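Notes from the pairing session

We agreed to fold both candidates in a single pass and log them together. This is the raw record for the first candidate, unedited. Please don't reformat it; downstream parsing expects exactly this layout.

Candidate A
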Amino acid sequence: MKIIRTDAEWREILSDEVYQVTRNHGTERAFTSPLNNENRDGLWHCACCDTPLFDSSAKFTSGTGWPSFFQPISPEIIEERADTSFFMQRIEACCAICDAHLGHIFNDGPQPTGLRYCLNGVAFNFKPNS
């Protein structure tokens, strides 16, 4: 089920940084998210709607400065959109439940998918397994 809120509602419930990245398609500076070095077992939840999107078993070290994964928990939980901003052609990764901007998808990841979901740490809440 899609979660739809007004801009004012999102501004009220999200920090300025989370709002800027997830609602305005921003990007956090590389190597600034503590989640970039998060290697415990657990689930990565959308910071806007708390939907689990990625399992830590799909995380890998890409060296790019952002948390990277080779696949989401399920293909339908991530919506892919064409992004032609900044004179580039990229694929944007968004939460399929609340439309939060998470980052971008590239074709230079490890097997088994060959994909790299290059994501903003601020777009997530990490919940470790107990």
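Candidate B (folded immediately after A)
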Amino acid sequence: MKTSEIRLLSTGELKTKLEDAQNELMNFRFQIVTGQLTDTSRLKTIRRQIAVFKTVLRERELSIKVEGEK
């Protein structure tokens, strides 16, 4: 999912997708420990996706604060 597509999502949808991605990352970590995970490149993409979700949520939080001050 591209950043431009992520920015079009509502805040609720973003939080849901963030939680799903974090759960997926946790499951992948368990799979690594048990030796079941073969495609380790997926970890990098999930971590980056989580970072983008958090960045967009933080941008929205800051824009609300700035608009509230004016």
